[in-house]
Every structure is written in structure tokens, then in C-alpha cells.
Amino acid sequence: MNYHDHYAKADRPVETCVVGTGGFGQSFLAQARHVPLMNARIAVDLTAEAAAAGLKAAGIDPRIIRICESASDAKAAWDRGDFLAASDLALVTELPFDVVVEATGRPRAAARHGLLAIEADKHLALVTKEADSVIGPELKARATERGRVSTTVDGDQPSLLIGLATWAEVMGFHLVAAGKSSEYDFVFDPATGRLSSNERSADNVDLAPHWDLGTRKVSELLEARHAAISGFPQRAVPDLCELMVVANATGLQPDRLDLHAPLARIGEVPTIFSHREGGGILSGDRRLDVFHCLRKPDEISFAGGVFVVVRCDDATSWEMLAQKGHIVSRTGDTAMIFLPRHLLGLEAATSILDAAIHRQSGYGSDYRPRYDLVAVATEDLAAGTVLSMGGHHHTIAGVTAEFRPAQSLVPSAPAPFYLASDCRLAAPVARGQEIRMRDLEMEDGLALMQLRRDQDSRFFGHRAQAAM
To answer: For the whole model, what pTM was predicted?
Structure first.
């Protein structure tokens, strides 16, 4: 596709408002300055000062950044052609911009922002996967009803994987698996026995005997590696959250409810993510999973990228492709096609331009609640415990997440992980048990909860109504 031609129908730059100026939002603000068809003049954060700092960090001249404390301040700054910094999206929604880029990472805030954006007839680029995992289909449906688009965002793994997996099936490939690498590699130095990942390290790690797959049984190798790195986390809630968004958009499904999440070298992926009868770990086709990329310090990273494993139906073609460097399993039955990139806000413009110019959503036309990401206690939790969400990965101490088939949130239903976040427990929950809706003290008036009730009603009908 020629991207110049694809966006040639745009008659003016797409105007965006970025909500949340750290991480993804920061990289988007910096890149948007270089996208000819885009402007990003409005930043919103917890404080207007934080929003202004985000604009400054993106290279905007401080002399043309205006702190806006009211809607009239915002309009005056907009009319002057200045950059706007505000503490509340509601102060700027009357301005004539096109797309809200919601990148706070906070599910409660994102629900409110998504609702404000859609009710103001703006398109919504929903970066906050935490909210997406709870109410994404409802936000998309509401946007569609108003002639607007809610979309996932390129640069982040859900959108990239939805694109790659659907491309593979449109091309006629038989999809065995689809997934992503975890955000941080596991880097092993055989000379010293040192293993590092995400600013954690350990010495004398016993991985050298388990470095090469060769003809070894896959399950045996993975168990040995799992034992060798037992001091490192081997499941990450954000990985499950991102793949749940993909499942709801595509109908792909996890092979196990908490994912296999093996420690794997890049060249092993199509062998590991193949059927059990063929020596892999999967019980069927169209499976979703994640792997932790294992490499030496001088080896290339998977860079948080995405992949599909396809069946090699045409052996002659794949033999030729293997000779050209493509990664084929040791049996020759499956192969991996991958995108080794995860560029966050630096790549988000394509999704935003598609939404504003072509009215296209990265979710596709059948985004529905197929799965929920539910909260499961990893330790005994007392009544009164606040399930505070924090840290870079937005986790909850003492709680993990697993897939479950989506359902209405009746009192006995397991609570979505990011709906339970920051709630207080009304009852104790034992280790290994799901946290259920009846176990939570839910604040009145939360947009996140109301949107989820509406989503349940929309997709589950009278079953949702009976729970209200």
C-alpha cells in the first residue's frame, strides 16, 4: 500500500487532543509534530502544569503553551493558534478538533474520557487497554451510533496483532497461533551465567544446559527453563490484558486461561507454538499466547513485537522461504511471520488518521465481549483490603489475572481485573479464588461501572437486566 495515496483525500491536518502525557502520550506528542497530516495542540493531564510539561518535553516552545483553567481560556488559546494545557478534558471538548487520544492508563479516568469524547462527537483512539478490557466494545458501539469511530491504536501490541492476524487469514494462511513477545527480553550471558530482565538480574542461572532446543522434547525444555528462572516473574497482567483485546476483536482464544508464556528463543517460536501431536504445546488452532524472548547480549531482540504461526501447507514454498531466512519449525510443518516492533506513540498516527479520514476502526466490525480478564487472588485477602493499582505495569498486589468467557456482571460473576482495581473488598477472598462482584465495594456514579452495565445489556440482553 502506498501510504501517501491512502491518505491523499485529507483536505486538512487531523486535529488531536492527547489525554495523558506520560509514556505513550509523550511519544505520540513528540512524533505528531513530524506527521504532515496531524496536529496535536491540546494536552490534558491530572494538572494543567503536568500537561504543559508534556508539551515542553515534546519540543513545543514554552512561549506558545497556554495553561487553560476554563473553557473560555481554551477557546481563546485555540483561536490564537497556541498549544493548550488543561487538567480536564471537559474544558476543551467544544473545540473543533477531531480525535481524543486517551492514554492515561487509568481505567476509571479513561471511561470518563471515552464517554466525554463520544458525547462531544469526537473520534476516540483508546490507548488505555485497562479500560478497553472492561468496556471497549461498548465504547465502540456508542461511537458507531453517533457516526464516529473508536479504535485501538497502532504502535501498541493489540492493534499490531489484530492487523497481522487478520492479514494472515485474509491471505489464506491456516492460523495455528498468534501472539506477542513480552515487553522485556530475558538476556543471558553463557560466559558468566548472568540473566537480566527489566532491571532485575541474577547470577549463576542454570540456563546453559537448556539453551538449544535441538531434538529435545519441547515440554521438557520449557519446564527446565521455567525452573531455572523461578526467581523472575513469568506471568504479566498487561500481557493478558492486551491479548484479551485481540481475542474480543478476532475470536482467537487462549490455549490456557493464564497463557503458557514460555521462555523461548526467537527461532523456536513456530516449534513451541504448534500442536501437541506435532511436538508443540497447543491443543488446537487460532490460539493466543505470549513468549518471553530469551537471547544472548549480542543477539537481536524481538523488540516487543507480534507474530503469527501458520501451517506450511505448501512445503515447496516454505522450503524456499526457509532458505531465504524465514523461521520454520524443526518439523517443517509450521512457520512464524512476525513484526519485530512495538513503537508505541511513534506509530500511532496511522490508526488516528484512519479513524478521522477513512472512518475505519482497528478493532474491525465484530468487536464484542468474548472474554473477560478477571481478578484472582494470589494470597489470602482480608475484608477491607484496597485493591490499589500501581506501578509501571498497573498491577494489584496479591492479585493476578486470567481469561474467562465474558458474561454479565451478576453478583456471583468474577470481577474484571481493571474494574476491581482501586476497589475495597467487602469480604475476604482466599488465595486461588476469583474475586467476585459481590466481594467489592463499588463507588456510586463510576462511568466505568455504568458503561459496563450498558455493555452487558447491549450484548447479553435480559440476562444483564436481571442482574441490575
So the answer is: 0.95
